[in-house]
Amino acid sequence: MKSKMKSNEMLLIIRQNLISIFKRYESLIVPIVRFIISFSALRMLREATSYHGVLSGTLVLIGLALIGSFASAEWMIVWTIFLVTFFTFPLNPILALILFGIMCIIYILYARLFPKESIWILVTLVAFSIKLELLIPIVAALLSTYVSVMAIIIGTILWYVVPGLISVLPNAVEKSEMIDIMNQLMVIDYKDLLIDPRMMSIVVIFFIVFSAIFIIRKQSIDYGPYIAIGVGAVMNILGFGLAIIFFGGIGVNMIKVVLETLFFSGVAVIIQFLSVVLDYQRAETVNFEDDDNYYYVKIVPKIHLTHKHTTIKKVYTDLSEANHFNRIMMEDDDISRGL
Question: Is the pLDDT of residue 294 over 60?
Fold first, then answer.
């Protein structure tokens, strides 16, 4: 029992030290994280569009990422719209205009209203590029609001639809070719692009996992966030299993899905532990009422460690040592008074 208490206390001490370090260097850590996300997104955009213009250099990308790391969420979205259009235009002007129109619609209908949550669109695209997409719905459901699920869905759809548009639209340079492409756009079967079995499966699974975790963690139950992570992991594994059964070849390895889900669930548990630790054993339910309503409020205190300060006192057993110490103190006092 004592060993368990010591291990729990050690974990809490580690957590508290990490939080204190983060708070001390928060003004430096947050821009670094934003810089990494911005730089990764810019590199992904450069590779996807095969752009080799004036903004393709590494130093230029670093400069653009630095701007994004200190910009507000809304300006990051506007900056992203501009850069995507600029990088795509040399590859295919028609595609650049299409993407510009799509991103403007997303900005007007969603990003303008929820700028902070819209960052998850960019995070989702970066996560897909580095094979961490299964982590996104779990972490977003723990840390963000429910409207973030729309950003995750938008990012997932863009990840699968944009490469399809690039493949069906050849490069256009001359006006005659652009007219041919405009005619080709009218006869493209968009059903194959928008109703891709793998994309639709991932969208549905992400929505279910996010919703399950978000709803459960909001419930008034002990260890709700951790239970939510477990339920979300089970839903993720079952979702991909059913997708493989019903759709067959969606390009998903079930063993890899299980291992990644377990690993990312562990990462989510660590994130939740660092976020907040509650003492459910001291939870209380308070009832009160006013003229219109009757309230049930559950109060769960946070766990805070108190630092123990050890004071060392020296006791003189020899009277001569004590008199010598008092004489030194009196001399120092006389010197400070100018005597």
Answer: yes
* Angle, CA of 68, 70 and 74, to the nearest 5°: 65
Number of Cβ within 10 Å of residue 295's Cβ equals: 9
Is 223 a domain residue?
Answer: no
Start-to-end C-alpha separation, the chain: 62
Question: Residue 68 has what pLDDT?
Answer: 82
> What number of H helices and E strands is found in the chain?
14, 2
**For 103-132, what is each residue's pLDDT tens digit?**
999 999 998 899 889 989 989 998 998 899
Q: Which among 187, 157, 156 has a CA at the least distance from the CA of 169?
A: 187
CB-CB contact of 261 with 134 (8 Å): yes
Residue 276 covered by a domain: no
| Contacts made by residues 228-231, CB under 8 angstroms, sequence distance 24+ | 228/141, 228/142, 229/138, 229/142, 229/265, 229/268, 229/269, 229/272, 230/265
| Domain that includes residue 23, residue range | 2-215
DSSP class of residue 103 equals: H
For the ranges 40-49, 53-62, 135-144, 292-301, the maximum mean pLDDT occurs at 135-144
Phi first, then psi: what are they for 302, rounded to 5°?
Answer: -80, 155
Within a domain: residue 330?
no
Count structural domains, the chain. Answer: 1
Domain presence at residue 24: yes
